[in-house]
User: Fold these one by one.
Assistant:
Number 1:
Amino acid sequence: MDIKVHVRESEDDAYVVELGGEIDVYTSPKVKDAITELIDQGHYNLVINLEKVRYIDSTGLGVLIGGLKRVREHGGTVNLVCTNPQIKKIFDITGLVKIFGIFDDEAGAKKALA
Amino acid sequence: MNAAERSIEHLGTVELRIPSKPEWVAVARLAVAAIANRLPFSVEEIEDLKLGIAEACTICIQHSAGEATIDITCDAAVSSLRVEVRDGRYRASSEGAPKRAPAAAVEGEGLGIFLIQALMDNLEYSVDPANGAQLVMTKVVGA
C-alpha cells in the first residue's frame, strides 16, 4: 500500500497535485495535507492528477470534496485528471462528475482553469 | 442438483481478523480480492468487492473504541460471495439479524454506505454507537 504525492507549479498560477497509488482511509490524510498546504499558501486553482491512482475510496473522495469547498470560498476551483475506468465509475455513481471538472489529460484540466 | 442450486452451492468459508486500524484495511481488501479471484468474477466486479469491503472496514474503524478488531467472514458459493464485516465488539440486537440503522446513526458514513449499496447486490447493516457495526454484503457473479 502506497501513495505518492508530487506537487508542482504550472503556468497561469495553477498548481498540479500529482497522485499515484492507492487513496484510502490510511493514505488519504497525506493527500489532505498536501492540498491543505497549497490552499493555506493561497493557491486556489488546482489540478489534481489521478492518472496514476489505482484505487480511491470514500475517504479519498471526502478529501477531494473538502479541497474543492475550500478553494471555492476563494473563487477558485479543482479540476481532476482521471482516465481509470473504475475510478471514473466511482465519480459517476456518487454524482461527483457534476461537481468536479473531470478531464482526460492535464492540458485540458489546466486550460479549463483559465 | 439443478443450475439454481448449483449456483448457491457453498464452496468454503474464510475468516480474517485484523486490527481496527487504517493501515490494515488494505490487507482485508487484498484478501477478499484473492478469494473473489477463485470465483468467476470479472475484474470490474472484483474491484467493486474491494471497495465494498474497504468501506465496511472504514465504517467499523470509525465506530471502534480504542483497541478493537474487525472480523471478516467470507462465504464463497459457486457464483456469489457473501462477506460479513463486523467490529470486534459488535453485539447483535435482540432481533438477531442486522437491519437498517436509523438514518441519523449512519449520517456520518453516508458516502461509504451509499457506495456499498451501489456496488453490491445486497447489503444489510447495523451501525450503532453502543453495539458496534456489522455489515453483510453479497456480490453475485455477472449480476
Number 2:
Amino acid sequence: MHGFGPVQPEEDEPPFHAVWEGRVYLMAVALMRRGLFTLDELRDAIERMPPAEYLAASYYERWLAAIERLLVEKGTLAEGELDAAVEGQRR
Amino acid sequence: MSLPTASALATRFDPGDRVRARVMNPPGHNRLPTYARGRRGVVEEVHGVFALPDEVVRGVARPRHEPVYAVSFESRELWGVDGSERSAVSLDLWESYLEAEPAPTDPVRSSPGGR
Amino acid sequence: MSDDHGDEERAENTRRVGLLTSLLEERGVVSERELDELVEAFVARTGPGQGARIVARAWTDSGFRARLLADANAAVRELGLDMAAGTAPHLRLRVVENTSEVHNLVVCTLCSCYPVAILGPPPTWYKSESYRSRVVRDPRGVLEEFGLELDPALRIRVWDSSAETRYLVVPVRPEGSDDHGEEELAALVSRNALIGTALAGAGAG
C-alpha cells in the first residue's frame, strides 16, 4: 500500500494510553505464559482479521480481537459468548 | 528455542555467503517480507535455531526448527534506481526462506551495491 | 491505523476487556487482580530509561560494551534487566552501535516487534503503517521528518525485526560529555535514540 502520510511522533508517550490497553497486553502475555497460544499464533490471528476490521481497529483493539479469536479456536470461550455478555451488560 | 553459539549449529549458510530470498506466495502466516522476495543479500550473522512460524500456526505437531540468519540487502537491490547508494536493510530470515546465490562469474558485472 | 479514539470507544473497550477478564477468571485462567499486578510490575520494570542505562554503561565501560556486543541477553542481566521476562522468553537481543560511518535504524515491517521486555511498549509511530512501510524504502526521508538530517556520507543500516531478534541502537556519545557520570549520560539518551530516529544529546529524554 502507498499514500501513507508523514510519521507523526507523539512527545513523551506513556506506555499505555488507557488502562484497558495495558490489560490487553498483559493478558496476552499471561495467556502465552500459560501456554494457551504462542506469539506466532497471535500475529497470525491479527493477520487473519478481515481487512476492513483490521484497518478500522486501533493497535490494541487488534490484539483484543486476536486474543478473542484464539480463545474461541482453542475452546476456552464459546463463539459469540463475549458478544452476548457485552450485549447483556449494555441493556 | 535458540542454541547459544553458531559453531554448535549445522547451518546451510555461513556469514559472508551470498543468498537470495525465495520467491514465494504462501497462503498463510510467513515472515519473509514481500519486498525482499527474490532479492539478493549477504548473510551477516546466525541468530540461532527457531521454530518455523509458518508451521507453528498451522498446528503442526512438531514444527520444523531452522537456523535464522541476519541477511543484509543493499537498498539498490531492493528498490532499484529508487534505492540509495549508502543504505542497506537487514532482515532476519529462516533458512527455508533462502537459497544459495552463486557469485557472479562475469567480472565486468558489478556486485549488488558492493560490500 | 486509527488511534484517535474518543471516550466512547474507550468505554466500549474497557467494558469488553472487563467482561473478557471475568469470563477468564471464571474459568481459572487469569484474574483481574493478577492482570493489574502484571501491568503495574511491567510499567515499573520497563521503559526507555532502562535502554538509556545500557547505553550509558556501554559508553563508559569498555568491558561491558564488549560483552554487550558479544551477548546482549547476558550483558543486560548485569544491570538487572532480562529479555526473558517479556512476551517470549527466547527472544534474542542484539545491540547495534552507531559510529562515525554507520547509522542504525530499527523497524518491524511485518508487525511491531520491539525490545519490549526492556524498553516497554513501542511508541505509536513505530507501529504505524507509515513508518513501517517507508523507513525501509527511504530511511533518510523518514529521518528528516524526525528533524534529523544525516551526513550523506553516513551509511544507513535499517534492521527489520522479522524473526526472534530484537534490536537496540547505541547512539553516538555526544561531544563534550567526557566528564559526565552514567546517570547524566543516560539522561542524554531518548527512546527515539534507541530506535535510531534521534541522536543522543542535550534536549533528549
